[in-house]
Amino acid sequence: MKTWNDYKDHVRDTNPEIAADMDEIESVSRIVGALIERRQDLNLSQRKLAEMCGLPQSSVARIESGRSTPNLSTLLRIFHELGLELVAQPAVQQGE
Fold first, then answer.
1. ∠ CA 66-68-74, rounded to 5°
2. Range of the domain at 53
3. Which CATH number goes with the domain that contains 64?
């Protein structure tokens, strides 16, 4: 195996259960990454974002560090304050 993507493809091919977990982790990572990037672009501290959303700063920190996955209503509240929109689109299937 040459790259990380090669390894992930190998795991996906050999273990569908782990593949599903990997897909979920990657999806959450993209969402949280967008949240962090936007917060930083707006020069907002975690504390200020938390105030805007009516959340404790520790909640924002746990979400950003991956120690906690927000429920949908919390995620939408944070996205609203950041001027982000959560969009659903068809998934690209392997091999397409």
1. 115
2. 4-82
3. 1.10.260.40
77-94 residues labelled b (16+ CB within 10 A) or e (exposed):
bbbebbebeeeeeeeeee
Residue in 89, 75, 77 with CA at minimum distance from that of residue 31? 75
Number of domains in the chain: 1
Tokens (6 digits) for 2: 């040459």
Residue at 19 is within a domain: yes
Per-residue pLDDT band for 95 (boundaries 50, 70, 90) equals low
Spatial CA neighbour of 85 closest among 47, 48, 35: 35
Q: Write the pLDDT tens digit of every residue in 17-64.
A: 888 888 888 889 999 999 999 999 999 999 999 999 999 999 999 999
Interhelix angle 72-82/46-53, nearest 10 degrees: 110
70 lies in some domain? yes
How is residue 86 annotated by DSSP? -
